[in-house]
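re: ur question from earlier - yeah i can do the single chain one, its not a big deal. heres the input i used so u can compare w yours
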Amino acid sequence: MATDVEVVQHGTAEINGCCKKGPGYASPLEAMAGPKESLIYVTCIYTGTGRGKPDYLATVDVDPNSPSYSKVIHRLPMPYEGDELHHSGWNSCSSCYRDPSAARRYLVLPSLISGRIYAIDTQKDPRAPSLYKVVEPDDVIQKTGLAFPHTAHCLASGEILVSCLGDKDGNAEGNGFLLLDSDFNVKGRWEKPGHSPLFGYDFWYQPRHNTMISSSWGAPSAFTKGFNLQHVTDGLYGRHLHVYTWPGGELKQTLDLGNTGLLPLEVRFLHNPSEAIGYVGCALTSNMVRFFKNPDGSWGHEIAIAVKPVKVQNWILPEMPGLITDFLISLDDRFLYLANWLHGDIRQYNIEDPANPKLTGQVFVGGVFQKGNSVLAEAEDGSTYQVDVPEVQGHRLRGGPQMIQLSLDGKRLYATNSLFSTWDRQFYPELLEKGGHILQIDVDTEKGGLAINPRFFVDFGAEPDGPSLAHEMRYPGGDCTSDIWI
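and the output i got, formated as tokens:
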């Protein structure tokens, strides 16, 4: 009989001779053969827009054969205002594949500002999700001292782990990891006492290497007020990766990424659970840093992709970083996709050689120096230019690409354009006036290449309660940024 490792690597649905299975897929490659997405859930934000409405979860029809294709077909408003829904995760994913009692039923919605965590039932009616439970911030603060929840990941145990970015007063020193049980009751902190990171943001675990790695945005007291470069100088933003024992919760190594690794945000391991390699996108310096396990068991890092800043005129600084705000890896670990929120482009890199990514596709879908804006980019010869960004279904593309999500088969990439309401107001004020949108990018997985799908455009500027900001996207069946394999 094959070992568990062999079974998972070969992608069969059989686990130790048993045909019963839990949610998700036996392996990343099996997930690629999963059904084509027909719905996407999107966190939509009114917080910070001045509209006095609660944030909501939108259900979008992404079935090209449907009469409501690329339309919002349901909206679930939260019971309170001022949440700032941001990222989301599942109560169960492919890490629970061996547990037939588990189900991918609840979408977990942490509220970055209010500190509430919502559990949304997507099983009763996937097209019209309903509110199941609210984890109140007072309960979290009283039992753990944590606030500003960000990333939620399901664990193989059935528990849910949520990174929190500070204490109730917005101090980064109070950040850490919140552990919820399978019914969303607060269990306590995950990390061992005295092992909290310097700053918090995203995290990913790789059980076969007994490791979790987290990244570091900044102190909530700083980023909630908008981006101020002085706050970087003042030490209110991060530049570190934190390496933990898994599932022990002991901080065993801190990687200082230095001045070339400022504001490390999303962190992803390769999907193959045997690999000890991953990447983190460093927003301010716009470098993709590769991290890897050394022969002695320690972890190292190096810059794998560098997005050069662009000289500009009529902007707040003489040079503009790309500002990598999101990236993801295809389920077969062949391609890496990143979004430059300020420059306005989405890029595709072949990472079959993880240490030497090769640019294979690029498409501009907005940005600060697109035609029609006041900002001009400077070429090396001193001449100025602007990027010609096409309209989609008669709509001028607003803002820049922010959160991205890839179809299981790797052929369709979806992109929203809102980062965080306060930063949207600062860098792309038109988003608050005209709302966000979702684009679909067609992906060439053979030769490489990206192209905007002209048939698809979801306009959140035309919402019933006024323009809203669209952020993270999830499929009911899981995706390459929510599922972790063990």
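The chain has one domain: 28-474. not sure if urs matches, ping me
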